[in-house]
Write a structure and sequence with these properties.
- α3 crosses α9.
- The chain folds into 2 domains: 8-113 and 281-295, Nucleotidyltransferase, domain 5 (2-Layer Sandwich), CATH 3.30.420.40; 126-276, ATPase, nucleotide binding domain (Nucleotidyltransferase, domain 5).
- It is globular.
- A 5-stranded mixed beta sheet has the order 3-2-1-4-5. Strands 8-7-6-9-10 form a 5-stranded mixed beta sheet, with helices on both faces.
- It is built from 9 helices and 10 strands.
- By secondary structure, it is α/β, with parallel strands linked by helices.
- Bound molecules: adenosine-5'-diphosphate and zinc ion.
- Adenosine-5'-diphosphate (ADP) binds at residues 14-17, 137-138, 189-190, 199-201, 237-239, 241-242.
Length: 296
């Protein structure tokens, strides 16, 4: 039965952890392993070791990775992580290392694009022409799905690095090594930890941190609404595990738009317009499987 289906490999490469899987599709995951993201050498060695010990090697591997990265197959640096602030990873030939180690075709895209594709196929983005998937975790990244395809252009969108007006009285310097107080610098998990002296996961729902967090996320969403006109905004990533954020963000989005963009999605249907992913945190790795399938 399922034994005869080709097996694909999937790598979801996050700034904090890697998730690797082997399976024939989202309903048939045969093995899955999570481990922390450390140096490129150690992490990629652990990744290839995971695939090598599988009873059957994958026929192709799909990678959804943190960026910035080079997703253009025609470019000499295709498959590289490029200017990431993550120590040691800038310039890493990620896709090449996996391709050489396992001798299989490799598909390579941003983690958020992979997650967005998963929501489009199986989750909260089904049937939509345009939507945005934003992840708020170690970094902040956004994927725009346009007619079923991740929006690529010059490189790929960098929705986490937009500049935003500060919350009233906020004098936190910001945590992005490139821009200081961009969205990621003000609102990603490490920025929250730097601002409050403790991890975001330890902050209770009534902590003032969440009001400030919602300020920046809502302003960013308003910018995406005004530039891309998405039919839905899906918010995932570790920081969004704080469910109290959703109502705060929805209210601030309405306040900031101030009635200018008119649509029921921004009124009575707001809860279905700004919402968590349907596939939860497994989306990325499931879609990396789908990416692998497309690479064969
Ligand atoms: P990655 O960025 O590696 O994919 P995550 O999306 O899980 O990983 O993001 C990790 C960040 O999410 C950390 O900064 C952590 O503090 C934060 N985080 C994890 N769980 C929670 C939680 N329940 N509430 C708020 N923040 C959380
Ligand atoms: Zn930045």
């Amino acid at each position: 039965m399922t034994e005869e289906k080709p097996l694909y490999g999937a790598i979801e490469a996050g700034g904090t952890k890697f998730v690797c899987a082997v399976g024939s599709g989202p309903d048939d995951v045969r093995a899955l392993e999570r481990f922390p993201t450390t140096t490129p050498e150690e992490t990629l060695a652990r990744t290839t070791a995971f695939f090598r010990v599988q009873p059957a090697p994958p026929v192709a591997v799909g990678i959804g990775a943190f960026g910035p990265l080079d997703p253009d197959p025609a470019s000499p640096t295709y498959g590289h992580i490029t200017t990431t602030p993550k120590p040691g990873w800038a310039g890493t030939d990620f896709a090449g290392a996996i391709r050489r180690a396992l001798a299989v075709p490799v598909a390579f895209d941003l983690d958020v694009n992979a997650a967005a594709l998963g929501e489009y196929r199986w989750g909260a983005g089904q049937g939509l022409d345009v939507f945005v998937y934003l992840t708020v975790g170690t970094g902040i990244g956004g994927g725009a799905l346009v007619h079923g395809r991740p929006l690529h252009g010059l490189v790929h969108p960098e929705m986490g690095h937009v500049a935003l007006p500060r919350a009233p009285g906020d004098d936190f310097a910001g945590h992005c090594p490139y821009h200081g107080d961009c969205l990621e610098g003000m609102a990603a998990g490490p920025a929250m930890a730097a601002r409050w002296g403790r991890g975001a996961e330890t902050l209770p729902p009534d902590h003032p941190a969440w009001e400030i967090e919602a300020h920046y996320l809502a302003l960013a969403l308003v910018n995406y609404i005004c530039t891309l006109s998405p039919q839905r905004l899906i918010l995932g990533g570790g920081v969004m595990h704080q469910q109290a954020l959703f109502p705060l963000i929805r209210r601030k989005v309405q306040q900031q738009l101030n009635g200018y963009v008119q649509h029921p999605a921004l009124g009575e249907a707001l809860d279905a317009f700004i919402l968590p992913p349907a596939l939860g945190d497994r989306a990325g790795v499931l879609v990396a499987l789908a990416l692998a399938e497309e690479a064969t």
